[in-house]
Specification:
GO molecular function: oxidoreductase activity
Number of helices: 10
Protein name: NADP-dependent oxidoreductase domain-containing protein
Helix content: 25-40%
Number of domains: 1
Pfam families: Aldo_ket_red
Largest sheet: 8 strands, parallel, barrel
Keywords: NADP, Oxidoreductase
CATH superfamily: NADP-dependent oxidoreductase domain
Oligomer: single chain
Structural class: alpha/beta
Strand content: 5-15%
InterPro entries: AKR, Aldo/ket_reductase_CS, NAD(P)_OxRdtase_dom_sf, NADP_OxRdtase_dom
């Protein structure tokens, strides 16, 4: 059944569907399966990135929907991200244009700086020296941001933002920007709430999108950590509210004022995860969820360690 997803309206004029489809690690036939099912169900917010190596396939699928008149471009909210090897101001525009072209659209709704870390320009995603050390570049965050601002002037993207930035890096951009960041995308779930960073962003008037709101299945190798979907409280609340653990986890993000994105290629799961707008977790239960936090982030950015930022 088609769901009208609520729109998160932000102080800076951004209007973004409160739940979106992440596309990290979606490959091959899974892309069209996931996207076709998602669009049928009512998903309109698609989160992409140069890094994910699948923008061309996503573009093929979106183009079929748009050309057949089943959907209008302005009904979609498409995000992409500037990868670390394109931080040099001279490379920013062509990087954005490549994503726009691959996605077969005329503009992006949101273009994010994927990480606050510049790597040397390279055909490889993470350039390394002979000792396997990451080759960083000394491009200042602010210089990259100023080049991203020009993309808005040129109509390549409507809004710009940042991903995986900390408070110091956000402040650095805020103190020098002409166009304020319209979004911060970071990891956040009940096991890793990242609440201080969220509070900081909200205080600065920047809305927040949470990735990995379901915790992460990739944590199974950590014997000392109970993954979010196996936390007893999540199951207890799922029974109480007659919902699935995933629905509880997503609703937790929504009730904290966040936009949430998750990845699934399963039509049933995609449908199930939209059934989160017909109930509310009580204040008391939200407090209990807040207490889970085991401080375990799923995405560590290990290859980027050692950069001055």
């Amino acid at each position: 059944a088609f769901v009208n997803i609520p729109i998160l309206k932000t102080v800076n004029g951004l209007q973004i569907p409160a739940i979106g489809l992440g596309t990290f690690k979606l490959k091959g036939v899974d892309i069209s399966t996931a996207l076709n099912a998602a669009l049928e169900l009512g998903y309109r917010h698609i989160d992409c990135a140069h890094l994910y190596d699948n923008e061309a396939e996503i573009g093929e699928c979106l183009s079929l929907w748009i050309k057949s008149g089943r959907i209008k471009r302005e009904e979609l909210f498409i995000t992409s991200k500037l990868w670390n090897t394109f931080h040099h101001p001279d490379l920013v525009k062509s990087a954005c244009e490549t994503s726009v072209k691959r996605l077969q659209v005329d503009y992006l709704d949101l273009y994010l700086m994927h990480w606050p870390v510049a790597c040397q320009p390279s055909d490889s995603k993470v350039p390394r020296d002979s000792n396997r050390n990451t080759l960083f570049d000394n491009v200042d965050l602010v210089d990259t941001w100023k080049a991203i601002e020009v993309l808005v002037d040129q109509g390549l993207c409507k809004h710009i933002g940042m991903s995986n930035f900390n408070t110091k890096q956000i402040d650095k951009v805020l103190s020098a920007c002409r166009i304020k960041p319209a979004m911060l995308q970071i990891e956040s779930s009940a096991t890793f709430p990242n609440q201080k960073l969220i509070d900081f962003a909200h205080f600065k008037g920047i809305p927040v999108t949470a990735y990995s709101p379901l915790g992460s299945p990739y944590l199974h190798f950590r014997s000392d950590v109970v993954p979010l979907m196996k936390q007893p409280i999540i199951w207890e609340l799922a029974m109480k509210y007659n919902k699935t653990p995933a629905q509880i986890a997503l609703r937790y993000g929504i009730q904290r004022g966040l936009c949430v994105i998750f990845k699934s290629k399963t039509p049933e799961r995609l449908a199930e995860n939209l059934q989160i707008f017909d109930f509310e977790i009580s204040e008391e239960d939200m407090k209990r969820l807040n207490e889970i936090k085991n401080g375990c982030r799923t995405l560590k950015g290990a290859a980027l360690r050692g950069h001055p930022e």
